[in-house]
Amino acid sequence: MNAEFRRNLWLELSTHRLVALPVALALVLALVHAMSDDPWDSVAATSAWIAAAFLGIGGVRRAAGSVGDEMRARTWDAQRMSALGAWQMTWGKLAGCAAFAWYGGLISLVVLLAAAPGSWKHSGAKSAALIVAASVLVQAAAGLAGLAAARKGHSSGGIGLLFLVLLVVLAGPTAGMVSTAEAGALWWGGTYDPVNFALASTACFAAWAVFGYYRAMCTELQVRTTPWAYAAFNVFLTVYLAGFWRASEPESVSGLNALLACGLIVTASLTYVHLFSEPTGVIVLRRIQVRFDRGELRRAIEESPCWPVSFALAAIASALIALLFDARLAEGHALHGLSLATIPAFFLLARDVGMFLVFAFARQPRRVEAAALFYMILLYGIIPGLLHAAELKGLAELVLPPIFTSPGKATLVAAAQALIVACLLVWRWRACRRAEAGA
Amino acid sequence: MSRAAIAVEGLSFEYPGVRALDGVSFEVVRGSVTALVGPNGAGKTTLLRCLAGLDRPLLGTVQVAAVDVLDEPRLAHRKLGFLSDFFGLYDPLTVRQCLSHAAAANGVAGSALAATVADAAARLEIGDKLEARAGELSRGQRQRVAIGLALAHRPEVLILDEPAAGLDPEARLSLAALFKRLQSEGVTLLVSSHILAELDAYSTHMLVLRAGRIIENRALHESNRPQRWIRIELAAPAAGLRARLASFDGAAIIEADERGALIDLAGGPVEQARLLSSLVAAGFPLSAFGELREDLQASYLRTVRERQ
After folding, report:
1. In which domain, by residue range, is B150 found?
2. Residue B104 with chain A: CB contacts under 8 Å
């Protein structure tokens, strides 16, 4: 048996827990059965909610702390030095940490399958499969986020809470959409059964989340990898989201336009996500510089964070939009003018990345993410808002360039801002090097 | 087989604005117990974590048991065990479960697992604690269990960071005996501490790290050293001791008065016996005559003085 899975079973499943949980579930469901006019329907629905609660709340909380708790307990170094492979550690942790949640969840799902009446619009089996796939997705994503937080020295408790909130926010609309959609799910040129589509989508994203957790584990265990999988995820997400846009406006949005626009949005968004979640200090970049200087290109790529991949893909997407975007869209359409706006938008992304790095390159970097976020809120919202309120539109456009209404001017302003930040960055980098030389 | 169990070349490590290790190069002799000593902040923990493949250096190479730690950290981990200064145990698990997990996580499987656990418990003398929960153990017992976890896969090299911190004198003595036993079994140990008295009991070599640089790496207590300190004590004051010693070939006086002397004598036991005969023949009332062994602390302080 996987040693990590077995260790988690020892910690999670005591004899008392193994006995008490089914008894407690049986009592609750017996009560529901006794109090309901439609007893088996109520038992099935309650079982589904209990399974979702076990797997979504208990499972996410445990998965989020799967590595962070070990770092705090100072047992993680020994785990990193064990002979367990990254995949063994991945599934041992994901399945093992949430073993009690899965025990309760699977018992509830068995009851759901047994009690679900034939009158339900969707079968109990599909509901159970959707709950399982969604649970794997959120638990793996929570584990990934918890690991990223722990590597940056943050508490994973907050990450677990964040995922719980997201789960609650997303679960309602998704369940509603799946249960009420009559026309079916529209994606690219096809129409699909909404439950089947939701199930397939969730399973795909669950597989990506588990794979992402595995790759993060490779980094922790110093298994050398290049970021091709991360680039592939950027492409997958682009194609997945573009399919909805293309299907919703087949007359006005071509497949190419949808792919290019979604590509820029996805890569830019993931650049921000990874920039804020990965260790990106002067030491990381200095190490990469040394690898490049020594001609160790593969090693440099292996030790790079993921955000430069998204950033490079965003640059490619911007260039492709400028070159290939079909601009024959009606005035007022969301994509109208995107071909010209893409260049200043990319300069703003570059400015934000540079601004983050300026804070990260401080001699004693503290609260880098909060500082960068604060200045981004100032630059994108508060300062231009105040200037507009004071009817100083010209000044406001120097802070937040009008990328859609005046793309030429916006390009100059955004490029100037990016240049200023680049100069600051070079100054900070040289200051770091001087400090190291003098230390 | 290489004579070096650990070989480090040009190792550099940086924290923001600080170079914690600066071009560190050294070798650790196979089968030795090497004391890594230096003041707080010298870079000892950083160096040990780089050797264990837990932290990635900026520059340099590290080989443990002939495996490149930076190129193949997973393979190197099979050859070495590491105990951090702030280690943790799975407190709700029993000692047997902790040892069993460590062995299984390091590739021991099937019927060998129980034997490995029993063997580790016997080596660490914790056989009577196997069913106790790790959280219920004393500091010394926890330390033993933690060393047992690091040794579960029988590594060739064991790296320990401040292993005796927080232990009572009895537990420290017991730890010293354990390290000597491991050395006799062929394990190479690299032990860091800034409490030199505890290292003196079992170390065979000394590695001095100061401000991120190695300033000394040598064997301790060498029986064939070309130089030795001789302490001479007289039962009654006698004039002429200093002059007599000064006239003896190979003797350099460190301090001397009418009641005794400390000299640095070139040569081995033969020269030592010749000097003793000479003093007895000259009628000095000797009450003590013998080699003054330099302990680790004296050796460290002498090294630091010489390099300043």
Report:
1. 4-219
2. 3, 6
The CATH number of residue B133's host domain is 3.40.50.300
Tell me: do B166 and B285 sit in the same domain.
no
Residue B304 lies in a domain: no
Number of domains composing chain B: 2
**B303 belongs to a structural domain:** no
Residue B297 domain-assigned (yes or no): no
φ/ψ of residue B260, rounded to 5: 170, -175
Nearest to A112 by CA among A29, A55, A54, A170: A29
What amino acid occupies position A392? L
How far is B291 from chain A, CA to nearest CA, in Å?
A: 43
Nearest chain B alpha carbon to A81: B77
Instruction: Give the tens place of pLDDT for each residue, B257-294.
Output: 889 998 888 877 888 899 999 999 988 999 999 887 76
Please tell me if residue B18 touches chain A, with a CB cutoff of 8 Å.
Answer: yes
Q: How many CB atoms lie within 10 A of CB A164?
A: 17
Rounded to whole angstroms, how far apart are CA atoms A193 and A184?
5
Q: What does the block give as tokens for A379?
A: 């630059």
* Chain A nearest C-alpha distance from B152 (Å): 10
Contact between chains at B77 and A73 (C-beta distance less than 8 A): no
Whether residues B17 and A439 touch (CB distance < 8 A) is answered with yes
Q: Across the interface, which of A11, A81, A436 has its CB nearest the CB of B93?
A: A11
Residues in chain B: 308
Q: Does B106 touch chain A (CB under 8 A)?
A: yes
Neighbours of A322 (CB within 10 A): 16
B65 and B168 in one domain?
A: yes
pLDDT at A180 over 70: no
Across A144-158, A327-341, A412-426, the highest mean pLDDT is recorded for A412-426
- Interchain contact, B16 vs A363, CB within 8 Å: yes
Distance from CA of B55 to the nearest CA of A (A): 10
Using the Cα atoms of residue B240, residue B227, residue B189 and residue A223 in order, give the sign of their dihedral: positive
Take residue B203 and report the two structure tokens written for it: 């170390």
Question: DSSP letter at B133?
Answer: B
User: Do B269 and B235 fall within a single domain?
Assistant: yes
Predicted pLDDT at B160:
93
> Is B50 in the same domain as B192?
yes
Burial grade of A375 (CB within 10 A; 0-12, 13-18, 19 or more): middle
Phi, then psi, of B59 in degrees rounded to 5: -140, 160
Same domain, B172 and B266: no
Helix (H) or strand (E) holding B37, with range, is strand B33-37
Whether chain A has a CB inside 8 Å of the CB on B53: the answer is: yes
For residue B154, the SS3 value is: coil
The ipTM estimated for the assembled molecules is 0.83
- What SS3 class is residue B15? strand
Q: At residue B148, what is the residue type?
A: G
Interface check B305 vs A, CB under 8 A: no
User: What is the average pLDDT across A8-34?
Assistant: 93
Instruction: Give the pLDDT score at A331.
Output: 64
Interface check for B153 against chain A (CB to CB < 8 A): the answer is yes
Across residues A128-153, what is the average pLDDT? 88
Task: Answer yes or no: do B90 and A11 touch at CB < 8 A.
Answer: yes
Tokens of B199: 């290292």
Give the CATH number of the domain where residue B286 resides. Answer: 3.30.70
- Identify which of A4, A74, A223 has the shortest CB distance to residue B86: A74
On whether both B126 and B270 belong to a single domain, the answer is no
Pair B174, B254 in one domain: no
Residue B87 belongs to some domain of the structure: yes
Is residue B257 located within the same domain as residue B149?
no
